[in-house]
Design brief:
CATH class: Alpha Beta
Shape: globular
Order of helices and strands: EEEEEEHEHHHEEEHHHHEEHEE
Number of helices: 9
CATH topology: Ribosomal Protein S5, domain 2
Number of domains: 1
CATH architecture: 2-Layer Sandwich
Radius of gyration: 20 Å
Bound molecules: (3R)-3-hydroxy-3-methyl-5-(phosphonooxy)pentanoic acid
């Protein structure tokens, strides 16, 4: 990766705090390209198909403070007041982002990173999306790198695929691209967060939503063993085209139809993986049946469900039907909470008062 740092202004001992929000894909990414014609390195996280998402409001976000300091001998990472072992393989793979940005800035300075997740971790809401977007954005700012956001999305993508979309607000497409070095596999905003004010999101938070397998490991397994996977890649690219046209027209029924088809297609491929990957549980299935029943009764698509790598649904509906959909969801046993996030903006710098690293001691501020 060749970038030029447009500003040499590394903020040594100066804390930078940012916020990034999670996102939900309507056409999902599940599977990386394997080494060959259009992929030179698996760790680049190059997707087999394009994806399209909506960025959540601040209700589902990560706040990250970062400081680069000569006083630090190694990187440190605190998540929700707990020190995280950076030698752990999955964390290490994600923190490559920090090394990439350091290389671009031409520095060896170590960083203290303090994050607070307002996304329930490992529940399938995409805490890695907001987390890695926040880390990438914060580190780039602290290192004084004037890289434009779409280029930055190339780096966030390495930490977590869905993170590249969270750098932007509103409706975001992550284009698959074709180059083996991933230079054209970047996110771009299609529409701002204010584009479709009548569109509402509801997240069903389940009582016991622990994830069974990480998406990274799951994707590898699917690409290796699923016979339906090839069809899925073709289907997802078709879905992107139809979804983009439906969004342009603000055609809710079409958006809903594609959203439901795409999530079920992804989960079908997961089931076709050896050993099968099952993120949905009984409550998820009951939610699907309930929404299908509501749509059947109404004779139109009133609500649409979508599931990432977890059992919690994100439901899409329109303002006029919102109360009816909420009432229907409240009757489902096993949903402990309904969260109603807005559609939010991209990653941004917060002011000093929101720092979670003490600017004087450079130590984490406890959330207690
Ligand atoms: O962000 P990753 O690399 O953990 O992949 C997440 C993939 C899904 O959330 C399941 C789908 C998507 O496109 O967000």
């Amino acid at each position: 990766m060749k970038y030029k740092a447009s500003s040499p202004g590394i903020a040594i001992d100066k804390v930078v705090t940012v916020q990034a929000n999670s996102n939900i894909a309507l056409v999902k990414y599940w599977g990386k390209r394997s080494i060959g014609e259009d992929c030179s390195d698996e760790s680049l996280n190059l997707p087999a198909n394009s994806s399209l998402s909506i960025t959540f409001g601040d209700e589902l976000s990560t706040v990250t403070s970062i400081v680069f300091s000569e006083k630090l001998n190694e990187d440190e990472f605190y998540l929700n007041d707990k020190k995280i072992d950076l030698d752990e393989k999955e964390i290490q793979e994600r923190f490559i982002v920090l090394s990439k940005l350091r290389d671009i800035a031409g520095t060896k300075l170590r960083a203290r990173v303090v994050s607070r997740n307002f996304v329930p971790t490992a529940s399938g809401f995409g805490s890695s999306a907001s987390g890695m977007a926040a880390l990438t954005f914060a580190a780039a700012k602290a290192l004084g790198l004037g890289i434009e956001t779409s280029r930055l999305s190339e780096i966030a993508r390495i930490g977590s695929g869905s993170a590249c979309r969270s750098l932007f607000g509103g409706f975001v497409e992550w284009e698959r691209g074709n180059k083996p070095d991933g230079r054209d596999s970047v996110a771009k905003q299609l529409y701002q967060e204010t584009y479709w004010p009548e569109l509402r999101l509801i997240v069903t938070a389940l009582e016991n939503p622990k994830k069974s397998i990480s998406s990274r490991a799951g994707m590898r397994q699917t690409a290796k063993t699923s016979r339906l996977y090839k069809e899925r890649i073709i289907g997802a690219e078709e879905n992107i085209k139809v979804l983009k046209a439906a969004l342009r027209e603000k055609d809710f029924e079409k958006v809903g139809e594609i959203t439901m088809q795409d999530t079920m297609m992804m989960h079908a491929v997961m089931l076709d993986t050896r050993p099968p990957i099952m993120y949905l549980n009984d409550v998820s299935r009951e939610t699907i049946n309930t929404i299908e029943e509501l749509n059947r009764k109404e004779g139109r698509i009133v609500a649409a469900y979508t599931y990432d790598a977890g059992p919690n649904a994100v439901i899409l509906t329109l303002d006029n039907d919102f109360d009816k959909v909420m009432e229907t969801l409240r009757k489902i046993n096993g949903i402990s909470k309904l969260i109603v996030p807005g559609i939010g903006g991209g990653a941004r710098v917060l002011d000093e008062s929101q720092s979670i690293i003490d600017p004087n001691t450079l130590l984490p501020v406890s959330g207690e």
